[in-house]
Amino acid sequence: MHTTDSKDYMEEKPVRICKQCLLRDLAAEDQKDLQKYLAVIKPQDRASEALYEERLAVCRACEKLSEATCEACGCYVEIRAYVAANRCPKKKW
Ligand code: SF4
User: What's the average pLDDT block by block, 10 residues per block, for the chain (93 residues)?
Assistant: First the structure.
């Protein structure tokens, strides 16, 4: 994973920001929250597993991804990509 260091001047310690992480790569607590969000999306509204993974692969390679969030729309990409009718704000998927 590629990370970028920046400085938190309030506490004088480096803050590591992962530019390619999804929620599934982060702490177990974040993953539990993700599963709760995904569970409320109706099955008929969900993207297929193949489409979902294809979309997430595009997001992982995108310069707009920062700590699982799309900087173009502010969404967690795993939630945005999960809904079949959703589109990438930059038209990448
Ligand atoms: S939704 Fe689109 S713009 Fe946002 S991170 Fe994914 S590919 Fe990039």
Answer: 54 71 81 89 98 97 94 96 98 98
Q: What is the pTM of this model?
A: 0.81
CA 32 to ligand 1 center in whole angstroms: 22
For tokens 């310690």, name the residue: 13
Q: 60 CB under 6 A from ligand 1? A: no
Joined tokens for residue 93: 């998927």
Q: How far is CA 47 from CA 1, 60, 73, 81, 83, in A?
A: 26, 18, 19, 7, 5
Predicted local distance difference test score (pLDDT) of residue 24? 85
- How many domains does the chain divide into? 1
Range of the domain at 66: 22-93
Which of 70, 71, 75 has most ligand 1 atoms within 8 Å of its beta carbon, as the pocket-test mutant? 70
* C-alpha–C-alpha distance, residues 7 and 10, integer Å: 9
Residue nearest atom 2 in ligand 1 by C-alpha distance: 88
